[in-house]
Amino acid sequence: MKVVVTGGGTSAPIDDVRVITNVSTGRTAAAISEACLGRGDEVWHVHAPSAEPPILRAARFDPEADLAAERARLDRLREDWIALRGRLHLVPLATGTVAEYAAALRAALASGAVDVAFLPMAVSDYEPEPRPGKIGSHLDDLAIPVRRTPKVIRHVRDWAPSVYLVGFKLLSGAPLDELIRRAEDACRINRADLTVANDLADVRAGRHAFHLVRPGRPVETLGPGPDLAARLVDRVRSWAAR
């Protein structure tokens, strides 16, 4: 399959040196791309500047590890990179604004007949009008007016009508019924085939789960585990192939 994955969090500039962003690391997106690559897919990975990239995210040297074991691990990682890099197209965002993300996503979807789009990118809901220069730091209070940003995912069906569209809905500390209801609304509004609902409180507590919400279908839950992203990819591949 040809797959587009987006990850990390967008940034909304306040002035020349400050931005408003979010806590997304891009870790889930990287794991999804890795799982797709492991199943033979060709992947376009659109990511924010600070997001963890697939495969390369494991290249950090651990100075506390046994030197021989660490060298062997990095050698295996290099072999994996060489084997997979022909099917992995990294699309890094330069600044990470919503407008830049929208343009990069649209271009990735136009790269060919994309089968599936996973969109866990945490996109800013609001952004200020950037001020030139740097706002002084002498003020005790600073009010920053913000405006609503366009919902990028709502355009995907127009850009790629046949793509199997997977959106994500993240809340924090919400009751499960509210989380599911919000995901159902997102499916309808975004014209998505699937919305993956999850809760930040569960992620931080080490019990990260995915609730798979599809229009007119029973909700499926994928429980916590290190292979959570891989299990999601397998479910989506089975549905997208029908």
CATH architecture: 3-Layer(aba) Sandwich
Low-confidence stretches: none
How many independent structural domains? 1
Helicity, as a percent range:
25-40%
Fold and architecture overview:
The strands form 3 sheets. Strands 5-4-1-6-9-10-11-12 form an 8-stranded mixed beta sheet, with helices on both faces. The protein has 7 helices and 12 strands. The protein is globular and about 50 Å long. β4, α2 (67-84) and β5 form a beta-alpha-beta unit. By secondary structure, it is α/β, with parallel strands linked by helices. The longest helix has 18 residues, at 67-84. The chain has one domain (2-129, 153-240): Rossmann fold (3-Layer(aba) Sandwich), CATH 3.40.50. Helix content is 33%, strand content 21%.
Walk me through the topology.
Layout lengths: L1 E6 L4 E2 L5 E2 L6 H12 L3 E6 L19 H18 L3 E5 L5 H12 L6 E4 L6 E3 L17 E3 L7 H4 L4 E8 L4 H15 L3 E6 H5 L5 E4 L6 E3 L5 H13 L2
Parallel strand pairs: 1-4, 1-6, 4-5, 6-9, 9-10
Antiparallel strand pairs: 2-3, 7-8, 10-11, 11-12
